[in-house]
Amino acid sequence: MTSIQQDHIVFLVDTPLLENLPAWATDNFTVTPGGYHDGQPSRNKLVIFADGSYLEFFNWYDTPPSLDDENFPMRFWGPKPPGLVDFAITDTGHSAEDSVQAVNDRLTEGPDGDADLGIKFGKPIAGSRKKADGVEIKWKVTRPEFSKGAKTPDPELFANGRIDVPFFCHDVTPRTDRVPYHDKKKTTHPCGAIGIAACEILVPKHLLTEYVHVYCKILGSKAEPTADQNSYVLDVGVPEGSVRSTVVVRAAETEQDRKRLQERGIGFSDLVIAIKTNGSGGEARRQLGTTGIESTIWLETAKRE
């Protein structure tokens, strides 16, 4: 099993939504206050799961930092429209520096390297925020650094900036300060959510093999094809518990898929959240809604190892 684990999911939201979360969020999840980030005009609210991962409702309450300011790794979300925008992975058994170095080594080794997509990871950057109770929590973020490779897709497939692979978030202060996943009041949700089942990545059909290759290198995991050969499933760890979590790299096949690529770019397209079974024999998977952010979120009966 890979040492890489799910960390959190990022939903970029506007100020009215953050300050008055819609029913699809509050009816299904227990929302925990987040806080304000140090040095930049952003804040968040969280949905914390028992597997140690979480959802982040991230909001710019003023002008985002410049894309040229390398001290602010979240700056790449500035040009993006609201929605499911990014996700973070972590490695609780290694330092940020050691973990990212191992990934970069994998991305440069062998004849295939990074599949000519132009992907590596930069140096860890310190981040922090103060919680509502005044406690300061600290972490290190490592974002991908992109270059023009022989198979890098055309810019029009990176709508409002390139975010086609995840970033890393490593804790400096104790993880339970940032993610209080042992607090059952925070991790008990009306919909029965217990963790992240899958992050689905939508890519051009002609580059499916290359993106699967890169995700294998980043996650340190093997890929298994689905029956229709349209997507590949990679296991990824979770900080706590035995719920299976995966990353699914999927080729754009339908007109809706291709429209999605044009509007939002290659990358994270759908989130599947694991829910505990109630034994009723109901739907194994259901969509939270048909429009907006909720249309990218699915609830699925949990699969255990």
From TrEMBL:
Coiled-coil residues: none
Top-level lineage group: Eukaryota
Species: Immersiella caudata
Sequence ranges assigned to domain Glyoxalase-like in this UniProt record: 7-205
Phylogenetic classification of the source organism: Eukaryota, Fungi, Dikarya, Ascomycota, Pezizomycotina
Protein's name according to its UniProt entry: Glyoxalase-like protein
Pfam families per record: Glyoxalase_3
InterPro entries assigned: Glyas_Bleomycin-R_OHBP_Dase (IPR029068), Glyoxalase-like_dom (IPR025870)
